[in-house]
Amino acid sequence: MKALQAIFILIFSELISTQKPEVIPAKWDVLYEKETEKNMSLTIFRFNVEKQYSVARIIMSCNESTEHNPLLAVFREKVAILSLQVPLIVDNYEYSQVARTLCPFTEYKEGEAFTVEVTSSRPVHYNFRAELVHNFYLYNDSKRLVTASASEPVYLRYDIPNGVDSVAVHVLSNTTTCMTVSVQKIGCPVFDLPDNVNSMGLHQTMTTSATIPVEKSRMSSFYVIFVVNTNDDLCSEILSIKPNRPTKFPLRLKSFNVTIESSMKIFDYIIPIVFWACILLLVTLVVFVYHYFDGIWERRFLSRAYTHLEDNAQDERLRDFYEFKRMSEDDDLRDYDILTDCKDMMVVRAKVCCSTTLTVADLSMTPYETREMQYDVYKIALAIIGIFYNITVLQLIISKAGNLRQSGDLDECTFNFQCARPLWYFVAFNNVVSNCGYVYFGSLIIVMNYCRERSFRRLFAVQPTLAERYGLPQHSGLMTAIGLAVIMEGISSATYHVCPNNINYQFDTALMYVIGMLGKLKIWSLRHPDMVVSAYHAFGFLGIFLMAAIAGVYVHNMIFWIMFSIIYIGSMMLISLEFYFKGIWTLNIRELRNSIRMSWATSRHLSCIVPAYKARFFVILLLNMANTAVVVYGLDAHPKDFLSFLLIPFIGNLFIYIIYYILMKMIYREKIPKRAVALLIAAVISWTCAGILFNQRVSDWSKMPAISRELNKPCIFLNFYDNHDIWHLSSAFAIFFSFTAINVIDDDLMFVMRNTIRVF
């Protein structure tokens, strides 16, 4: 553009020196129908500037000019020289009507002249009109109807008033024509053409909605530029067919409303943040009160149970000693076997094969300290993973935030711009700070788990029999790991919301997978304490799972979906076998064939096909049906948001497992503590609210930025938090209530003999 402008100036300078131009004393708002002179003679329109700081707009049209014989015009101002040609050609889209708004007459005095010079290589007829823009300024909370086109960009000025820290520029339209909205500092020239509008300031594409937050510290006064794009390629995933050579097109008009409203002051951010902090403080007080009364209950309960335990301890030890001695000296290997999955544990295989009752005592013969060390690996491994993972994440996001601030390209991030509250380097500080709930509740889970562990150690110190023979075996490693995962989720989600897009969305979901996996392992370990899944194997499997999830974001062909479906269903089958047989099986074709033949030969009336554990079989069937339905949906729909697609079955399986566990406790007439019931009710309420808010999406990184902004909605709480922020808060509560309930759901079994507690 600068080179073309220089060429125009040289041509005009040469013409002025060789030709005598026609000078026309022109008037504002008058249409001139003229014809260019021969031999490229100039026609000069001379306008008197009636008022300083007034703004002029030039409209020119010509149906006879062509790419090789354009109509050329130069607008000479004191601060700059602007040029244009008719037809305007952008990406082979040709427009025969052009309009430009000139820089304000800031250096002019009343009565001084402003000139427009017009020429062409061959005579052409053209229409020319210059008008003064009387509504050039935008004002707070005042709606302005504006119309622009691809060859007729429009820009308006706004000055941020005193006492306002930031404003939001809202643009709404009833049409889906793609347009670029830009906010630029006051200056001349103004970049208002399709090929240079993205060169300066803040800018974003739009179809029906656009919102640009502007901080006063960055721009106290600015121009708002509206440039209709020549096609919808920047706003749509379906690319248009571009012409191979310059082709005339009708004007792409777009009408829209512009409104500028003041945003919250920085001081006003304190109220919603303090409000949220007060809620967390209230939760903290409730937790402390709970632990205080829980300690009183613990001492009273122990004093009542102590006498009963002492009376039964000696008889129980003698009975267990003779039973264990009899089993150890039995030579009948057809009835007894040792599980390799459970070290130092004698388990009667006939209990599983012959449908007799399998108890927690059969699966909890590992010493307490040894078992605790095995579960502690989870929190240690996760802490190391979290340090290295989050360092990389923070480094990437800090770099991304700096690039966003420098480039001004707001299409890089899919914010809810209608409720974006800027602060420092954050475009939407509210989306970042709302993740503090995860960090707080994750820390609270760790603290409560530590207090619970100390409480049990005191009990076990007073009465060692409790740790050996009563209740479910205690271990704190997995719950501490869950607390760490929730903290890391808060940090990762906050970094993702610095600039949410498809590249860093994995930061927001990776730890959700970890939480889901650890939650299922925690429930499994309640009644299978010695069947420890290696932390290295678990995290290794999850790493492979995440690699497949990331591949699904970029690969959408049928081959990938078929391979994913086969691997996913195969994995579900293996997990189902492990869950049903409780580890009493091996992936051996010969043994499997012999087992089937033996079952068929010894069964009557096809009884071998009737499941021995009906409840267990039903939940496995339900899980497999649900997961198969998800896979079938994926094969049919090929969702682009593959990470969220996988998160649904991952978390859904955890919910089904929790429901199964609660139902089995009720079937076996085990009491559920009142505090666990209260926590479960609170969790259901929180998850319901979170689910409703999650489905009311305010942005979507899987769509084009302009399409994502169609989902943008205003703040819904304290003029600071939007739907997604409340989802963060409610889901943090839900996670806390859920895992706290899981941690105390079996406290009613504390003084129940372990060899009478069923495994399910």
Automatic annotation (TrEMBL):
Give the family from UniProt. Belongs to the SID1 family.
Quote the protein name from its UniProt record: Protein CBR-TAG-130
The keyword Repeat appears for this protein: no
Domain of life (superkingdom): Eukaryota
The organism of origin for this protein:
Caenorhabditis briggsae
Question: Transmembrane region positions?
Answer: 269-293, 380-398, 432-451, 533-554, 560-581, 617-636, 642-664, 676-694, 726-745
Q: Where in the cell is it found?
A: Membrane
Q: According to Swiss-Prot or TrEMBL, what is its membrane topology?
A: Multi-pass membrane protein
- Cellular component aspect of the GO annotation: endosome; Golgi apparatus; lysosome; plasma membrane
